[in-house]
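Annotated sample (chain length 146).
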Amino acid sequence: MQLSLTTDYALRMIHYLSAKKTIVPSSEISENLNIPQQYVQSIGRKLKKAGYVNIMLGTAGGLSLIKKPAEISIYDIVLLMENSIKINRCLADEKLCNRAASSYCVIHAYFAGLQSLVEQDMQSVTFADFLKKKVTPKLYLTLPSY
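Output written by the structure step:
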């Protein structure tokens, strides 16, 4: 799995808004995060539709968080922005296994365990953690046996 540029931008926007704790003009977000203005607006609309940000129009307008940083995980934003977060296609849909072997395939079991760890780790990290600068991946955990 490789995150799209749009997802990277969305993550950085949420982090920036978390740190600002106020209405931030989209031009400021664009300039400070080096994200094209149209991208900021497009991502902002998607984040608004999902209930993460509010968009105010006008000269004093901009974007602001609706939820607290502690209520937004990395997983939430990645899942919103990506079509799939699965690291192997057979994890997204077992019918995509060209051998119909997902129930006994050791490769599938390995990737399923790794997928679970990745998702658990992303769910455990919120934007409040980033503000505290206390973020370390926990993927050093032992994978389940298969």
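Annotation: Residues 30 and 37 are 5 Å apart (CA to CA).
Annotation: The helical segments are 5-20, 26-33, 37-49, 74-81, 89-92, 106-124, 127-132.
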